[in-house]
Write a structure and sequence with these properties.
Layout (H helix, E strand, L loop, with lengths): L2 H11 L13 H10 L6 E5 L6 H7 L4 E6 L2 H11 L6 E5 L12 E7 L8 H14 E12 L6 E2 L2 E2 L5 H8 L3 E12 L5 E11 L1
Parallel strand pairs: 1-2, 1-4, 2-3, 4-5
Antiparallel strand pairs: 5-9, 6-7, 8-9
The structure holds S-adenosylmethionine (SAM).
């Protein structure tokens, strides 16, 4: 099954707050984004944003240049509807992050929570890293969150990769300078916990 078919099925059958990765607010992401990019005019892309409230919270904090990308049109539609007329202030992209052609140097900040770890083949990871390297401006910021070394081995029925800061950084290479990393214990709606890793890099 390709990524689009899988994720469409997930979003067609589950409420936004019933999926294991749901949080009312992505507090760690928000704190990192605000630290990395204080100016509200910066261009930010949330890759695999799904139905998360990150875009709502960024708009609320005054960020003016937001893009949400997801392979699932259903997830994008749910988020657009939730935002109402504010959805017009956001750029929406539907497609597979490894396959579409994002504009060169389009973004100051790239955010991904729980997408990169689904890339289980080296070829897909290389395509993703090339996409980041092309789409983020030199000097730009990259925030990636994956399952940590003690995180689950599967998510949403799919095999995932687990990373520590060193192995995640190893996937991205020397142009990506690691600024900081941290781990988070995420409590799922069903009450279990999952270890996430957050890495924040700057592109040289
Ligand atoms: C585990 S969910 C995380 C959603 C959101 N980032 C969050 O933290 O709540 C993974 C998301 O990535 C999207 N996704 C998975 N593979 C993708 C790909 N190759 N390209 C674009 N989006 C993808 C899915 O549709 C889904 O919305």
């Amino acid at each position: 099954m390709d990524a689009k078919t899988h994720w469409e099925k997930v979003y067609a059958t589950k409420a936004p707050d019933a999926v294991s990765w749901y949080r009312a607010h992505l507090e760690t992401s928000l704190a990192l984004i605000e630290r990395a990019a204080e100016a509200r005019s910066v261009s930010i892309i949330d890759v695999g944003g799904g139905e998360s409230t990150l875009v709502d919270d960024l708009l609320h904090r005054g960020y003016e240049n937001l893009t949400v990308l997801d392979v699932s049109p259903t997830a994008i539609e749910v988020t657009r509807k939730r935002l109402g007329s504010d959805a017009e202030r956001v750029h929406w992209l539907v497609g597979d992050v490894g396959e579409m052609e994002l504009e060169r140097d389009a973004y100051d900040l790239w955010h991904d929570r729980a997408v990169f770890h689904f890339l289980t083949t080296p070829a897909r990871r290389v395509a993703y890293v090339q996409q980041v390297a092309r789409a983020v401006k030199p000097g730009g910021h990259v925030i990636i969150s994956t399952f940590g070394p003690e995180g689950p081995t599967k998510c949403s029925g799919l095999e995932v990769m687990r990373y520590d800061a060193e192995s995640l950084h190893g996937e991205f290479g020397g142009r990506f300078r690691l600024v900081e990393s941290s781990k988070e214990l995420h409590e799922t709606p069903s009450g279990t916990t999952q270890q996430f890793l957050y890495c924040y890099c700057r592109i040289e």
